[in-house]
Every structure is written in structure tokens, then in C-alpha cells.
Write a structure and sequence with these properties.
There is one protein chain. The protein is α+β, with helices and mostly antiparallel strands. Helices cover 54% and strands 12% of the residues. The protein contains 11 helices and 9 strands. Strand 1 and strand 2 form a beta hairpin. Helix 5 packs antiparallel against helix 6. The chain is elongated and about 140 Å long.
Length: 418
């Protein structure tokens, strides 16, 4: 019996597909095409947790942080000197006035001189490096990565700050050079793949024409053969191989030249039921049971029924191929907030974690007879419907694909009127 999504993820808490940030347990790996970088989801931080520190930041010290740093540095020293003056004043109450006034004047002048000397030292040792650092940071902000500070040679904390800043700038410069190199490489590969795509599309068109002629000839030969001829089995195999080649060529053309979906409101239950009916023909031959759980209360969904039918048929055939023994495939429709969800769950071999981020890449396949275009085409179709595909898999226990489609598509942004 295949695990449900609740069993394959966190026990007792079914994740909401409209909020794809539920942490995945250690034994089950989760992947979603809705994430920009398309990585494996382990333990994403929730928005509530991310905002705790910012919401609880103290505001009571803002006025203190707004005071000039020289005042904050001299204030403790001035307090100490003032306290010393008061104590000295109390200690000299018994002295005669001329002597007492002279000593107090000298002590006051000394305190002022100490504060002035400290201010000069702090200005030279702290303020000048900080001003220079601010200027270099502004230079970095303008994109100039040749900035460096001159106080990095000092053997104190300010010098450590300067050395760390210069090292950071060097690392930023090296990172930018690496990014530019990778960008040039990716652009070159993109142009190369675009050329290969055009060649593959042209070849696919050229292959289909003679393939149709071969299929016609084989059909005529098959009709003319006697019923007892052993060559009939060979003709049957040839027909299957021709159909397989035609399927590969069709997938290649659809991947290279995608057609926009013809979206209209219709019952998603009917679309999925039609795909399940076709897949059951192959499921019976494999001894696999496919069960369908429709959602009668699901409103009409804006979708291209032919394209979504193609997506579901591909997911069902993949589920059948993942089952090595007699097993079961569950198809369940549901509604999550403003989205319709179609779950396809099998109890097959599962997908290894290292393969999970690659299953939607074109031409990536772990099957000997596969083309690797099925899931790539399914992802493109679903994303054209403004949806996504979530995958949860446990090796040895099964895989769950969830196709998430909005009940109503949002209008594409329009440019300014000319």
C-alpha cells in the first residue's frame, strides 16, 4: 500500500501545497519546481521565524547611538576627572585660599589638557580610519572593486579591520571575475544548445516524413501476410518500434517548439479520469491497480485539457515503470485554498536524493529506454499554466508527484501603452 503524503512527510501534519515551505523530514526528500533555484528542500526558515529578531529590536538606545562618538568616548573620562576634582576640592577645604585656588586651577587645566590629548589621539587613531573606511565602502557600493584601505598595516584591532576589509574586497573581485567567466561560458553553451535545438527540430521533421512512409508499407505488408505466417510477429514488433520512434520525435518537437496552452474553464476531474482510463490498459498488463479519488466539490479549473491530460499520462506511466512488482498507484484530486492539486502516489522504488534535482532536466533519464523528455515537457506545461510540480520520494517506499494548478490564472503583465 503506498504511503500517503501525510505518511511520507511529517507525521500528523499534512503540508499545504499553496505554502511550499514545510520542512521535509530526514528520511524523505522533497523537491518543488516552484522554487527559483529548484533545490532539494531540507528545512526552510519560515517567515515568522525570520521576522522575530527584527520585530523585537530595542528602540530605547537609538538616542544613545545617535550621539557623536567623540562625546561618547570622552564622557566616561570627563566623569572620572570631574569626580577626582570634587574629591580634591573636599580634601583641600582646610587649605588657604590662594594656595587652594592655584592648585584647583592647575588640576582643572590638567584635566582639560588630558581630554584634549585624548581627543587628538582618538581622532588620529580612530576617526581617520573610520572616515576612510566609509569612503571605501561607498566606492564599493558604486561597483569599484579596486578599493583598499591604507591602515591595514597597523598592529591593533583597527588594523585587523582594515586587513579583513581588503581581503573581503579581493574575494569580491575574484568572485565577480568567476561569475563573469561562468556567464560567458553559459552564454556560449546557450548558443550551442540553441543551434543543436534547431538542428534537432529540423532532423525530427525530416525523420517523420520517411517514418510515415515506412509505417504505411509495414501496414500493407502486414495485411498481405498469411495468418499463419511467423513474420506477423516481426511486423508487430516493427510497428511498436515505429510508434516508439514517432513518440520520441513528437516529444522532441514539443520540447523544441512549445505551443502555448489553449486555456478554458472545464472540469479537472474529467481530464484526470480520461488519463487514468488510458493508463489502466498498461497497468492491467503489469498487474498494477490504479485508483482514482475525484473531488466532486472542485470548481472548474482554467486549463488546457489536452496538455494536462498529457502531463498526467506521463506521470502515471512513470509511476507504473517505477513499480517492480504488483503494486498500486493512487490518484487523488483536492482543493487547497485557490489551487487544485492532483497527487499521483506509487509504492515503487523511489527516487534517490541525488537524482531528485535532475529529474526535470531535458534528456536526463535513469531508464535505459527513456528519452528524458517526459518530465521536462510536463514541467513546462504546468509552469505555462502558472502552476508547479512538487515531488516527495522515499527510496524503497515510493514517490508522490503533486501537480498544483491555480483555479484561475492571473493575467500576464502588459507593457505601457505606446
Amino acid at each position: 500500500m503506498p504511503e500517503t503524503l501525510e505518511q511520507m512527510t511529517t507525521p500528523g501534519a499534512r503540508p499545504e501545497f499553496d505554502e511550499p515551505d514545510a520542512p521535509a523530514p530526514s528520511r524523505t526528500r522533497v523537491f518543488s519546481t516552484g522554487y527559483p533555484k529548484g533545490g532539494i528542500i531540507n528545512a526552510p526558515v519560515s517567515a515568522e521565524m525570520a521576522g522575530v529578531g527584527a520585530s523585537q529590536a530595542p528602540d530605547t538606545e537609538l538616542s544613545w547611538f545617535g550621539i557623536n562618538w567623540e562625546i561618547k568616548a570622552l564622557l566616561p573620562i570627563a566623569c572620572v576627572l570631574l569626580g577626582g576634582m570634587l574629591l580634591f576640592l573636599l580634601a583641600t577645604l582646610s587649605w588657604r585660599d590662594p594656595e587652594r585656588h592655584l592648585v584647583l586651577l592647575v588640576a582643572g587645566a590638567g584635566a582639560v589638557a588630558i581630554c584634549g590629548a585624548l581627543l587628538v589621539v582618538l581622532t588620529y587613531t580612530v576617526q581617520r580610519p573610520m572616515v576612510e573606511l566609509q569612503q571605501k565602502i561607498a566606492q564599493l557600493g558604486r561597483g569599484d572593486l579596486s578599493a583598499s584601505v591604507s591602515f591595514a598595516h597597523r598592529n591593533d584591532e583597527i588594523g585587523d579591520l582594515g586587513r579583513n576589509f581588503n581581503q573581503m574586497v579581493v574575494q569580491l573581485r575574484e568572485s565577480r571575475e568567476e561569475i563573469e567567466r561562468l556567464h560567458r561560458t553559459q552564454m556560449s553553451r546557450a548558443e550551442h544548445f540553441a543551434t543543436l535545438g534547431e538542428m534537432a527540430t529540423g532532423l525530427a521533421h525530416e525523420i517523420r516524413n520517411p517514418l510515415a512512409g515506412i509505417a504505411g508499407v509495414i501496414e500493407i505488408i502486414g495485411r498481405d501476410l498469411p495468418t499463419t505466417s511467423p513474420a506477423r510477429e516481426v511486423v508487430k514488433d516493427v510497428r511498436q518500434e515505429i510508434a516508439r520512434i514517432n513518440h520520441i520525435v513528437t516529444d522532441l518537437l514539443q520540447t523544441a517548439r512549445p505551443h502555448p496552452p489553449k486555456v478554458g474553464k472545464s472540469d479537472l476531474n474529467v481530464t484526470i479520469e480520461h488519463a487514468v482510463m488510458l493508463a489502466r490498459q498498461q497497468a492491467l498488463a503489469r498487474g498494477v491497480e490504479i485508483s482514482l479519488h475525484k473531488e466532486p466539490s472542485l470548481p472548474e479549473v482554467e486549463h488546457d485539457s489536452d496538455q494536462i491530460h498529457q502531463v498526467m499520462l506521463n506521470l502515471l506511466l512513470n509511476a507504473l515503470q517505477a513499480i517492480d512488482r504488483k503494486g498500486k498507484v493512487d490518484v487523488k484530486l483536492s482543493q487547497k485554498n485557490l489551487s487544485a492539486v492532483v497527487e499521483v502516489t506509487d509504492n515503487g522504488r523511489g527516487i534517490p536524493p541525488e537524482n531528485l534535482p535532475n529529474i526535470f532536466r531535458p534528456f536526463y533519464t535513469t531508464k535505459g529506454d527513456g528519452t528524458g523528455l517526459g518530465l521536462s515537457l510536463a514541467r513546462r506545461i504546468v509552469e505555462d499554466h502558472q502552476g508547479r510540480i512538487d515531488v516527495a520520494s522515499t527510496v524503497g517506499k515510493g514517490t508522490m508527484f503533486a501537480v498544483v494548478l491555480p483555479l484561475q490564472r492571473t493575467a500576464p503583465p502588459t507593457g505601457p501603452a505606446s
